[in-house]
Amino acid sequence: MTEVFKFRFRQGTHGLAANLRAEVSPLGGAPAHGMQIHKNIWLALPEPGLHWKDAAWLAFGVSANAQAVSELHPEGAVIRVTSLDYPLSDYQAEVAALAMDGWLHARFAIRTSGFSVAYDITRNRYVFAWGDVPDPFSDTLAW
User: Fold this and answer.
1) pTM for the complete prediction?
2) What would the pLDDT profile of 18-67 be if each residue is shown by its tens digit?
3) Distance (Å, rounded) from C-alpha 93 to C-alpha 90?
4) Are 48 and 81 in contact (CB under 8 A)?
5) 109-143 confidence digits (pLDDT tens)
6) Quick check: bond before 26 cis, omega within 30?
7) For every residue of the chain, which 3-state class applies, written as one string?
8) Nearest to residue 96, comparing CAs of 67, 125, 63, 48?
9) How far is the C-alpha of 40 from the C-alpha of 77, rounded, in Å?
10) Full strand arrangement of the beta sheet holding 41-44
């Protein structure tokens, strides 16, 4: 069943918003339009697709929670996004990660990832925090 998560952030006259529609199903093989996030956890993107930045940030949102989802679904799972839209708000692709993180936490009883956003009025920009991850897209080797 598709579930909607509405991410909203407002500070003064500034705000970010995204509506994410997604569902989870058992893994029955690699899904079309999908990408492997962690072991047996896959993310399937909507047809006809998304902007690459939205897809990357959605994948990051799943990856931050993939270990916990994998523990709940040891047989594997597909998180299928049916739509992602940004209603009448500022647009920043990072919001896709916050929306996915929020959707996963609303859907599953898993520990918080520590994702957050704030508006820095002195620098006139949004500041994102990714929990224990200092640089979401770095490839720092673990060995």
Assistant:
1) 0.91
2) 999 999 999 988 887 799 999 999 999 998 889 999 999 999 999 999 99
3) 10
4) no
5) 898 899 999 999 999 999 999 998 888 888 764 44
6) no
7) CCEEEEEEEEECCEEEEEEEEEEEEECCCCCCCEEEEECCEEEECCCCCCCHHHHHHHHHHHHCCHHHHHHHCCCCEEEEEEEEECCCCECCCCHHHHHHHHHHHHHCCCCCCCEEEEEECCCCEEEEEECCCCCCCCCCCCC
8) 63
9) 7
10) 3-11, 14-26, 77-85, 41-44, 34-38
Q: Are 46 and 125 in contact (CB under 8 A)?
A: no
Identity of residue 53 = K
Retrieve residue 15's tokens.
């705000």
Judge whether 17 and 9 are in contact, CB under 8 Å: yes
- Tell me the sheet residues that pair with 68: none
Q: How far, in Å, CA of 63 to CA of 73, rounded?
A: 15
Q: Is the peptide bond before 134 cis (omega within 30 degrees of 0)?
A: no
